[in-house]
Write a structure and sequence with these properties.
The complex is a heterodimer of chains A (419) and B (298). With 419 residues, chain A is α/β, with parallel strands linked by helices. Chain A folds into 2 domains: 270 residues, no CATH class; 107 residues, 3-Layer(aba) Sandwich (D-Maltodextrin-Binding Protein, domain 2). Helix content of chain A is 65%, strand content 6%. In chain A, the strands form 2 sheets. Chain A has a 4-stranded mixed β-sheet with strand order 2-1-3-4, covered by helices on one side. In chain A, helix 1 crosses helix 9 and helix 10 packs parallel to helix 16. The model of chain A has no long low-confidence stretch (mean pLDDT 82). In chain B, the strands form 3 sheets. A 6-stranded mixed β-sheet of chain B has the order 6-7-8-3-9-10, with helices on both faces. A 4-stranded antiparallel β-sheet of chain B has the order 2-1-4-5, covered by helices on one side. In chain B, strands 12-13-11-14 form a 4-stranded antiparallel β-sheet, with no helix packed on it. Chain B has 9 helices and 14 strands. The mean pLDDT of chain B is 86. The chains are: A alpha/beta (419), B alpha/beta (298). The interface between A and B is medium-sized, with 22 and 32 residues.
């Protein structure tokens, strides 16, 4: 036990006082916050200018009613739209050409052509340099169709008031039911972002610490430090010391991040220039975050240890570790699907499979309300797998660390395990 | 009582027998050498002693107990291929190695500082290992092996890769330790180094024992006992006695092979009145020749 502690101490000290650790630990929360704030800040800081529109109404029934529907104003109180209604004459082509020229020279932002047969179903034409402005496009389309429908209905003998009453649209409000029964209003984007940030951190740290332990084992082999370590400790002590040592490094990092998270939860609203909606997760999520990181770490770092023990160079190891890395990528690929269908069968099944559960069960907890039994079943399966994996890898490690040169074949590894 | 007792250890890797039925003892105040060419089974034997690999059969006892990991802190082991964490500070590396051998942090630090001073590396203690020259790194390795004051020191090919200064250093250190009553065991393929240092030796080849015993007994038993004599005068006199078995005559000197139990000085007494001797040199066979004559026959 003393020897394991000595090795833990060395691994910890050598990693935590490294510059890269300090930078990574401090930078991650900053990036996290930036991902939450910057989009809303950008929206806020967007400089608002009035939109200049020209409208040519060949039908003569729409354009007059349009300024009424586009009468909202900018933050500084001036109208959002400056509308110039053109009178159709015999030579519409010439008007269109002239307006296109205006769009091109940016004297106007857009040019809307309402065809003569709009009521019969002809399409609108909208000329602009920026046709990807969906908000505006959709708005113009909606206004014209409302006026057109209105017109059609009036022609069919309906009263204006009745029409308004009949064509009223319905809105939607999304409300998430959380475990405490509280209701919080969160949309897909919020769910996606908060889950995505957590899952990304889990993924990055699991790979990073797994790879780091793998590389350090290869380094100990190639520099023959392992021979010196074996003069006083046995292989199991060295392996346990390394995994626990790196694990404490990761835990330190997570505790710092989670403390950061608590600060955001409790003081976020006061510190943030914008609403901290993306950070509105419950504190217990952060505790699950640490729990599933630790479980995932022990599983994956043990597997990466096995790969390090049977390989001799970083390139060789990276190749051999591809299946393991792939197991970590799958939850990342599934994230969008998970956010939409957190209770689908495939997500439920994957949340019990130990190689995926650290990330997927955590995501389920964040997105939906799995029962305690479900959560702890997943955790117990994980723990059992970790124990088995440690026993297995310890046997591979024992032999592997003294094998230099050729990478052993699978049958050879099976023989080591049976020893 | 011997510090280390090895009885009939065998290690096989599949069909290949790395070590076959090897036994020997190492006692306090002795330097024991395991000699043999590369691939003879020296490192495998040492790894079995260090409990790094388990023998298929046979027993290994240290300080009267069956070898187990708790005894490792009483051994100072210098592996044949050895490395250090390049990015660690010298003092941290040594304290780490000391602690791994069961020392308390303070004691490890004290011992590290003592040995660094002794090896003139005191001012390097705060440097990273990779800032040190290769020779200095070798010294750090040696300090790491002995800093916890072990009772048994096991050195696997200690001279390989060392610069001449460090070869001397380690030889002196081995003799110091022997005089302090430590048991020392080392393996080497350099027979002449063994000849100068060992009290007892074991020669192995292809996993099998070739020969073992006290060095001087082996030399007198297996070595031819011959003398190289330069002289002026009539060389026939060397044949006219009953204590030589063979005389080879050359223009200015003779090679005389002595009978068992007779020494060159007896021969000189018999011839000194007849010839004028200008130089005399005993030409015992070296361990190397003994090894080749014995192992070559196998």
């Amino acid at each position: 036990m003393d020897k394991i502690l000595t090795i833990i101490k060395r691994e910890y000290k050598e990693a935590v006082f490294k510059k890269s650790f300090i930078i990574m630990t401090l930078l991650t929360p900053i990036i996290m916050i930036a991902m939450g704030i910057v989009p809303s800040l950008l929206v806020r800081m967007d400089i608002e200018e009035p939109t200049v529109l020209s409208i040519l109404d060949e039908s003569g029934i729409i354009a007059d009613k349009m300024p009424e529907a586009l009468d909202d104003s900018l933050k500084d109180g001036t109208p959002r739209f400056i509308i110039n209604i053109l009178q159709p004459n015999s030579d519409t082509d010439q008007i269109i050409e002239a307006q296109k020229e205006n769009v091109n020279s940016e004297t106007i932002d857009g040019f809307l052509v309402i065809p003569k047969d709009i009521v019969e179903g002809d399409d609108l034409k909208y000329y602009s340099k920026n046709v990807a402005n969906f908000d505006l496009n959709r708005r113009l389309q909606k206004i014209v169709s409302t006026i057109t429908i209105d017109h059609r209905l009036q022609n069919s003998g309906f009263d204006h008031e009745v029409i308004n009453e009949l064509t009223k649209s319905v809105g939607i409000k999304t409300i998430k039911i959380t475990k405490e029964g509280e209701e919080s209003e969160r949309g897909f984007i919020d769910e996606f972002f908060s889950t995505f940030i957590f899952v990304l951190i889990l993924y990055v740290t699991l790979i990073m610490y797994g790879m780091s332990i793998m590389r350090s084992i290869i380094q100990e082999k190639t520099t023959r430090i392992i021979e010196v370590l074996l003069s006083s400790a046995n292989p199991f002590q060295i392996m346990a010391g390394k995994i626990l040592g790196q694990g404490s490094v990761g835990l330190t990092q997570y505790v710092i991040w989670v403390l950061f998270g608590f600060i955001l939860i409790f003081f976020g609203a006061r510190m943030m220039p914008v609403s901290a909606d993306a950070f509105s997760f419950s504190p217990e999520i952060l505790l699950y975050f640490i729990l599933f990181y630790l479980l995932g770490y022990f599983l994956f770092s043990t597997m990466y240890t096995g790969v390090g023990a049977i390989t001799n160079t970083d390139q060789e190891a990276q190749q051999a570790a591809t299946p393991i890395t792939f197991m970590l990528i799958i939850p990342l690929i599934l994230i969008s699907f998970m956010v939409k269908n957190p209770d689908s069968t495939i997500v439920q099944v994957l949340s019990y499979i130990p190689f995926f559960s650290p990330i997927i069960m955590f995501a389920r907890i964040n997105l939906s309300t799995p029962s305690m039994i479900e959560i702890w079943t997943s955790v117990l399966i994980l723990i059992a797998t970790i124990v088995l994996m440690i026993l297995l890898v310890a046997k591979i490690y024992r032999v592997g660390i003294l094998m230099y040169g050729k990478r052993p074949t699978l049958p050879e590894i099976m023989k080591w395990i049976r020893l | 009582m011997p510090v280390l007792e090895i009885n009939n250890i065998v290690k096989k890797y599949g069909e290949y027998t790395a070590v076959n039925d090897v036994s020997f003892d190492v006692s306090e105040g002795h330097i024991y050498g395991i000699l043999g060419p590369n691939g003879a089974g020296k490192t495998t034997t040492i790894r079995m002693i260090m409990n790094i690999i388990a023998p298929d059969s046979g027993s290994i006892k240290l300080f009267g107990q069956t070898m187990n990991d708790s005894l490792k802190s009483r051994i100072g082991y210098l592996p044949e291929e050895r490395g250090l964490y390049q990015k660690m500070k010298v003092i941290d590396m040594l304290v780490f190695l000391g602690e791994l051998h069961g020392m308390k942090t303070a004691a490890a630090k004290e011992s590290a500082v003592f040995w660094l001073e002794k090896m003139q590396l005191g001012e390097k203690s705060q440097n990273n290992i990779d800032e040190l020259s290769k020779g200095m790194q070798q010294k750090i390795q040696i300090i790491g092996t002995i800093m916890h004051d072990p009772d048994l020191i096991i050195l696997d090919e200690p001279f390989s890769g060392l610069d001449p200064v460090n070869v001397n250093l380690i030889k002196n250190l081995m003799m110091d330790m022997r005089d302090k009553g430590k048991a020392i065991m080392f393996s080497t393929h350099m027979m002449d180094a063994a000849e100068k240092l060992c009290n007892e030796i074991l020669m192995i080849n292809k996993g099998n024992k070739v020969l073992d015993g006290k060095l001087n007994e082996i030399l007198s038993e297996y070595g031819k006992n011959s003398v190289h004599i330069e002289f002026h005068g009539d060389g026939k006199v060397f044949n006219q006695n009953d204590i030589v078995t063979k005389v080879d005559h050359y223009p200015n000197y003779v090679e005389v092979e002595m009978k068992e139990g007779h020494s060159p000085s007896q021969l000189i007494k018999k011839v000194i009145d007849t010839v004028e001797i200008t130089a005399i040199q005993s030409s015992k066979s070296s361990l190397n020749e003994i090894f080749i004559s014995l192992a070559g026959g196998n």
